Amino acid sequence: MNYVIGLTGGIASGKSTASDYIRSKGYPVLDADTYAKKATAKGGPAYQGIIDHFGADLLQDDGEIDRRKLGAIVFNDTSEREVLNQLVHPEVRRMMDEDKERLAESGHVFLDIPLLFENGLDRQCDLTLTVYVDQETQIERLMERNGFSHSEALSRINSQMPLSEKRDRSTEVLDNRGSKDALYDQIEDFLVRIEK
Ligand SMILES: CC(C)(COP(=O)(O)OP(=O)(O)OC[C@H]1O[C@@H](n2cnc3c(N)ncnc32)[C@H](O)[C@@H]1O)[C@@H](O)C(=O)NCCC(=O)NCCS
Ligand SMILES: Nc1ncnc2c1ncn2[C@@H]1O[C@H](COP(=O)(O)OP(=O)(O)OP(=O)(O)O)[C@@H](O)[C@H]1O
């Protein structure tokens, strides 16, 4: 059987680290963040709607949306985040579904979707895989990777379903509190199991 596997986690919990490893083993991984970047890029299907709502102040000199500015708005205001979600998510879903249908014909497909449970997309997956870390580690890694202050990191974390809830709802859990190698070992075990 070919599985559609939803890979999720919290911000900076290690989804991309897991995805990169899974890709290196030859499996296709579709990344919702990449589709969202396409949808919001200049000329993308959500671009004009974002400018109409949030204003042209958001634009950089090259006409692209300043993601840090938009992030500062939406990660501190639930209703503004909801507006952005409604502009971007249908486009992401449409593009991703097309690619998923095509790839699922020839083997397992992984969908890396940060908001998998928030948006009920777990229902379209045969298995769900959550990359879990404790909140202290998550904040540390997020601050380090993005150069965020503690409060910037926390506002992003608080924009998502608690990671412990995702872990509990998931059919499989990858514990990423240890080293990257420890994460890769767990992925290896999982890949062996789905090939059986
Ligand atoms: C607000 C934006 C411009 C900030 O861009 P930035 O480059 O700083 O972050 P990036 O896109 O790399 O996202 C990083 C992480 O933030 C989290 N995140 C992003 N958007 C959201 C959201 N709407 N709600 C909760 N968490 C989110 C995810 O864990 C994601 O992996 C951007 O995240 C965006 O356009 N978000 C709306 C689209 C979306 O929901 N994307 C997430 C998956 S579809
Ligand atoms: N086990 C680990 N040990 C140390 N650092 C790690 C580990 N796993 C991931 N990291 C680092 O933590 C940061 C976040 O990881 P990653 O980018 O994979 O998370 P993500 O869940 O994809 O984030 P986002 O939600 O923002 O897309 C990166 O800088 C990554 O190199």
Sequence-ordered SSE layout with sheet pairings:
Blueprint: E1 4-9, H1 15-24, E2 29-31, H2 32-40, H3 47-54, H4 67-74, H5 78-104, E3 109-112, E4 127-132, H6 135-146, H7 150-157, H8 163-169, E5 172-175, H9 180-195
Helix pairs in contact: 1-9, 2-5, 6-7
The structure holds dephospho coenzyme A and adenosine-5'-triphosphate.
Question: Tags for this entry?
Answer:
binds dephospho coenzyme A, alpha/beta, EC 2.7.1.24, Rossmann fold, 9 helices, ATP binding, 2 domains, 196 residues, single chain, five-stranded parallel β-sheet, 12% strand, binds adenosine-5'-triphosphate
Rounded to the nearest angstrom, the distance between the terminal CA atoms is 10 Å
The number of distinct helices, counting runs of at least 4 residues, comes to 9
Protein structure class: alpha/beta
CATH superfamily of the largest domain: P-loop containing nucleotide triphosphate hydrolases
Output the helix-strand order: EHEHHHHEEHHHEH
Bound molecules: dephospho coenzyme A, adenosine-5'-triphosphate
The residue ranges in which pLDDT falls below 50 over 5 or more consecutive positions are none
Mean pLDDT: 97
The major sheet is characterized as:
5 strands, parallel
**What fold name stands as the CATH topology of the largest domain?**
Rossmann fold
Order of adjacent strands in the largest pleated sheet? 2-3-1-4-5
What proportion of the residues form beta strands (DSSP E)?
Answer: 5-15%
CATH A-level architecture of the largest domain: 3-Layer(aba) Sandwich
Helix amount: 40-55%
Structural Rg:
17 Å
* Count of distinct structural domains: 2
